[in-house]
Amino acid sequence: MEILAFLLLISAFLLTRTTRLSTAVHILLAQSAVVAAACAAAGWQAGETHMFVAALLTVVVKAGLIPYALLRLVRLLKKEREVHPVVGPNGSSLAAVAAMVLSYGLIERALPAVISRDAVASAVALVLIGLFLIITRRQAIMQIVGLITVENGLYVLGLSTTRGLPLIIELGIFFDVLVMVTVMVILAFRLKRSFHSTDTSILKRLKG
């Protein structure tokens, strides 16, 4: 689990470095695959078979359907880069490192006896870095990537502190995520059709 937690941190750090939208989606795909592997590993250790179903759903929804929809949207864009983020790659990477240090510090003080410290700390770091991406990126696709990163962090946090939620709740969560991302992809597609870009800052033009 420690290796998987390390891979999650690496994926979140790489997301703060990249400006190419397709690269960000591929990193998100890899991150979701690691989350699925962590779920399967936790299910194997706990002997909970329903967690293998959750791992399979993670692969299908987060490593399959969502990246496929985002990559199709990226292919429609002429400029597939995050050109003018609020915070540049170097500043974002420093913020990501600060988030990781803060996460480990918080877990060390708040939960000193927790068994899966690395997994919990990486989950908190994923949530913080995902929120940072949502706030500082202008492209709708990057904001969706940040949102899924937050969701992955919350999922790993729940996975690390419990033996997994009941299957019916897992199904409900995956359905909510799928619907939410579908709506956001449709809105991003409409944004591209109207303004030939998915830069959300151009929505300021709609002010009266």
TrEMBL record:
Membrane topology: Multi-pass membrane protein
Domain of life: Bacteria
Subcellular location: Cell membrane
Major localization listed first in the record, in broad terms: membrane
UniProt KW Membrane keyword: yes
Keywords for the protein's UniProt record, in alphabetical order: Cell membrane, Membrane, Transmembrane, Transmembrane helix
Signal peptide: none
InterPro entries, per the entry: HyfE-like
TM spans (from-to): 52-74, 86-107, 119-135, 142-161, 167-189
Stored PANTHER family: HYDROGENASE-4 COMPONENT E (PTHR38601)
Protein name: Hydrogenase
Native species: Anaeroselena agilis
